[in-house]
Specification:
Elements: H1 2-21, E1 22-25, E2 29-35, E3 38-43, E4 46-49, E5 55-62, E6 66-76, E7 82-93, H2 96-101, H3 106-123, H4 127-132, H5 134-150, E8 154-166, H6 168-233, H7 239-258, H8 271-278
Antiparallel strand pairs: 1-4, 2-3, 2-5, 6-7, 7-8
Membrane topology: Single-pass membrane protein
Organism: Sulfurimicrobium lacus
Subcellular location: Membrane
């Protein structure tokens, strides 16, 4: 009975020893081996033998590209606008020993350094520039942190700005500002229209007055020419005035007679005497 129990203990010891001494590293990973608490070696994919109870696998590091989601954060621009920015980074472990011993958590370190650098870059830009310079921000971000992550045994393969937009409060403020600007432009446009209409109306009145004055001048010239011709054709110099005035008098009587409001027209018996009396002649 005692031998059987010891046999079981021995079998378990052998099984545990073999399990601790024989390791198979899968493709896409590298394992860091520590011997008595110190770094000893890095196991690449494949079969490996360790010294049981002395060596131990301290870290299992993926060598495939890591996709790190950079959480959304609020960033203040140079002109005090608040933007919401998030990104995604593609990182590869190129030096396993530095990755596990160079920083407490290289994934957390990458996220924090990208967030910090992103705030610094966007903080140097004004709102419009930041919203339209996504590619520029990406390039500067990669250039700024590549050297830092290289010290940790990492390579930043790419970083993409997923979203950059005004914060909800900032977006509401921008919408109200845009509405006020549209209203201001509409008011200015209406005032310009009223001004232009008033100018055109004044120009129209001025042009009409000029035409009326020209017409009166032409009529006066015509009347003068008529008097001149009548005077030249009649020796008596008073008679042309009587003639013209009498002609106008008769024309006025004709218009008065043709008026719809006039039912009866009384003509003087002696028109010439009437005309003479108008001129002060007896």
């Amino acid at each position: 009975m005692e031998l059987t129990f010891l046999g079981i203990i021995f079998f378990i010891f052998v099984a545990v020893t073999v399990a601790k001494g024989v390791r198979i590293v899968p493709q896409g990973e590298e394992w860091v081996v520590e011997r008595l608490g110190k770094y000893h070696s890095t196991m690449l994919p494949g079969l490996h033998l360790l010294i049981p109870y002395i060596d131990r696998v301290g870290y299992k590091v993926p060598t495939k590209d890591l996709i790190l989601d950079i959480p959304q954060q609020e960033v203040i621009t140079k002109d005090n606008a608040v933007l919401v920015v998030n990104a995604i980074a593609f990182v590869k472990v190129t030096d396993t020993q530095n990755a596990v011993y160079g920083v407490t958590s290289f994934e957390l370190a990458i996220v924090n350094i990208i967030q910090t650098t992103l705030r610094s870059i966007v903080g140097e830009m004004e709102l419009d520039q930041a919203l339209s310079s996504r590619e520029q921000i990406k390039v500067r971000l990669k250039e700024s942190i590549s050297d830092d992550v290289a010290d940790w045994g990492l390579t930043l393969k790419s970083v993409e700005i997923q979203d950059i937009k005004p914060s909800p409060s900032m977006q509401d403020s921008m919408e109200r500002q845009a509405a006020a600007e549209r209203e201001r432009k509409a008011t200015v446009t209406k005032a310009e229209g009223d001004k232009q209409a008033a100018i055109l109306e004044a120009e129209a009145r001025l042009e009409a007055a000029k035409r009326d004055a020209q017409a009166q001048i032409v009529l006066a010239q015509g009347a003068a020419e008529a008097i001149k011709r009548v005077t030249e054709s009649i020796p008596d110099r008073e008679f042309p005035a009587y003639y013209l005035l009498g002609e106008k008098y008769i024309q006025a009587m004709r218009e008065l007679a043709s008026s719809a409001n006039s039912k009866t027209v009384v003509l003087p018996a002696d028109i010439m005497q009437t005309v003479q009396s108008l001129l002060g002649k007896r």
